[in-house]
Amino acid sequence: MDADVVIAGAGPTGLMLACELRLAGAEVVVVERLAQRTGESRAGGIHSRTLEVLDQRGVLDRFLAQGALQPVGHFSGLYVDFDESESRHPYPLMILQSAVERLLEEWAGELGVRVRWSSPVSGVRQDGSGVTVELGAGAGHGGTLRARYLVGCDGGRSTVRRLAGIDFPGTEPTMTALIGDVELPDLPEDYVWVRRRPAGDYSAIAFEPGWYRVITSEYDRVPGRDEPVTFEQLRQSLIRVAGTDFGMRNPRWVSRFTDAARQAARYRSGRVLLAGDAAHIHFPAGGQGLNTGVQDAVNLGWKLGAVVRGQAPESLLDSYHAERHPVGERVLHNTRAQSALVRPGAQTDALREVFGALMVFDDVNRHLRHMLNALDIRYPLGGDHPLEGRRVPDADLAADDGPSRICELLPAARPVLLDLRGSTEVAAVAKGWADRVDLVEARSADEHWVVPGIGEIDAPDALLVRPDGHVAWAAAPDCEPDLSALRTALATWFGPALRG
Ligand SMILES: Cc1cc2nc3c(=O)[nH]c(=O)nc-3n(C[C@H](O)[C@H](O)[C@H](O)COP(=O)(O)OP(=O)(O)OC[C@H]3O[C@@H](n4cnc5c(N)ncnc54)[C@H](O)[C@@H]3O)c2cc1C
């Protein structure tokens, strides 16, 4: 075998997955079609849950140093407020995708990940013991790689998805958007935030002194997927929508996107899995694509790592589809709604006004902010405690030494059994998994925790936290902990107990 896992694609999803797999002890090769990074950036921001997972791994500061926190988010251009009690990172971080990729690649390198450039996946064969991955020659070396698993993180037009025969059903585009990084010397304002006009809408956001990211959306014509995109098309589109080109000049980059929304019917076909845009594409409203891909990677990494190390059965991989497919489905759903809310026309004007008035209500705003920031996701793990299946809040821990908050328990991506009441019974159960699960005894600094999607709850007595930061088991305060449920959760996620 050349590696335990071959990852196709060195975008944000592939790089995050490579890091997670290395933390789980797997050997990884990332193969990338491009000869080198282009420096282009589609995404311009990351959200609360992604900031939390980077925080869990101890690398968040690198990202904060390269971006700027925004005080608000948005749903279809309508402002969504944040609440500092719900997350330690309640604000979106404006950071270009190129910087996110550079930082993830740097971290991956520190963890020993090899990226093979100019190496497009062109063929895949699966058998009982592994996958043979063929690499197109291109400017690279061609040849084949042998691994236990292949993960396609190769973007919306995924070759891996096609080769694995996985359907990609969804809705066709109804609009086209052009995007470019340009100079706009005649723009009379500092920035333009989603300005709707009869012919479409446009925005111009400064992301570097003198440089604007211009986006125009038009609804009368959807060009073919492979039609070329030019600076002149962007300029003409801005004139049609805004009535002027604001002196647009000096393009660094132009591209196109639509509101096509599609999702892989299965995230796994035997030894081939999909993550990120290879598994789901949608209108980029609310900036959720990169975030969802990174969070796919965090869900899959520890599971695939445990399987290749022989610590968990292959069936654990099915939980990846079961947990992440519904999350992707919800993102497609909310982005379809966002694209409907921005179209030109009197009916949409009215709908937008009604929707905007509803957003003033706390409950509406809260619902949207939880959804856009992926803070209220509850994986279907079963269990009675309201935290089970949800991401663990980053609560403060009261300890003289050691970690001062829950996030600090997860940098090595190992599961943690957090005992907040010093229960000898919980500690006794933990012994059965002492080689794989870290038992941590601490105290919660607060009696109550704020949990998006539920509200305030009493701090639990004990918690089993998976490496992705989701709660697999919890004991309510002042009740007998259900030790049988704890043993079941430990065995389900981390394999059988040690003998004796
Ligand atoms: C205008 C716009 C704005 C956006 N803004 C945001 C935002 O603010 N926040 C957000 O979260 N998301 C945003 N997105 C979405 C985001 O850009 C994508 O969701 C994200 O890039 C997906 O990452 P990925 O790694 O899954 O795929 P990609 O970034 O597409 O990476 C796939 C990689 O695979 C490589 N590849 C392709 N084929 C092969 C092959 N056969 N073999 C090997 N390698 C291959 C590609 O070269 C590429 O490097 C935006 C998108 C657009 C269009």
Can you describe this structure?
The chain is an alpha+beta fold and 500 residues long. The chain has three domains: 3-169 and 262-372, FAD/NAD(P)-binding domain; 175-258, Alpha-Beta Plaits, CATH 3.30.70; 406-494, Glutaredoxin, CATH 3.40.30. The protein contains twelve helices and 27 strands. The strands form seven sheets. Strands 1, 2, 8, 9, 10, 11, 19 and 20 form an eight-stranded mixed beta sheet that branches. Strands 14-15-16-13-17 form a five-stranded antiparallel beta sheet, with helices on one face. A hairpin with a 2-residue loop joins strand 15 and strand 16 (211-218). Helix 1 (12-23) packs parallel to helix 4, helix 1 (12-23) runs parallel beside helix 7 (289-308) and helix 7 runs antiparallel to helix 8 (318-340). The longest helix has 23 residues, at 318-340. The protein starts with a strand and ends in a 6-residue tail after the last helix. The relative contact order is 0.13. The mean pLDDT is 94. Bound molecules: flavin-adenine dinucleotide.
